[in-house]
Amino acid sequence: MGLFSEKENVDLFASTTAETTFYIKSSKTTVRLDNKFVRIARGGVSNAILQGLDGEKSILLSSITAFQIKEPGLITGYMQLMHPGSSDIKAGESAIQDEYTIPFIKSEKSIVLSIKNALEEKLS
After folding, report:
1. CA distances from 55 to 30, 67, 114, 124 (A)
2. Would the pLDDT of 40 be above 60?
3. What is the pTM of this model?
4. Residue pLDDT, tens place only, 16-29
């Protein structure tokens, strides 16, 4: 079977009843948030080229030390999650390529603010 051929869908991280799911269409990024983890999964060929085929990243909520949101302007905005061992990347394209960064465009700002609010609620 080839890399992009039809294959069985394997759900490594099953949904839970306490989970909220957000989808950022422009970056083909799905963010799932439950009571213990935030999970980031990317789809599409451009994400595979930029970040590889790493599947879904899970971050323990209790390990998140900070997050920052960069407003979209002429370039894509982003929400970057930081935890011990992650790096605070503030340069445009480098930040977008970070595996714990959620890129978004202006019309998706409300979705990212919903993610921010849900994270703050879970962390408080």
Report:
1. 11, 22, 23, 28
2. yes
3. 0.74
4. 677 899 999 998 89
Query: How many CA atoms are closer than 13 Å to the CA of 80, on its beta-carbon side?
Result: 21
The pair of structure tokens assigned to 21 is: 């799911």
Sort strands 37-42 and 56-60 into parallel, antiparallel or unpaired. antiparallel
Surface-to-core class of residue 102, CB atoms within 10 Å of its CB (0-12 exposed, 13-18 middle, 19+ buried) = buried
Contacts with 68 (C-beta within 8 Å, 6 or more apart), sequence order: 79, 80, 82, 88
Model confidence pLDDT, tens digit, residues 112-123 = 999 999 999 998
Coil, strand, or helix at residue 80? Answer: strand
Q: Pick the range with the lowest mean pLDDT from 9-13, 15-19, 73-77, 86-90.
A: 9-13
Amino acid at the residue 49: I
Coil vs helix vs strand at 29: strand
Residues 8, 52: Cα–Cα separation, whole Å: 20
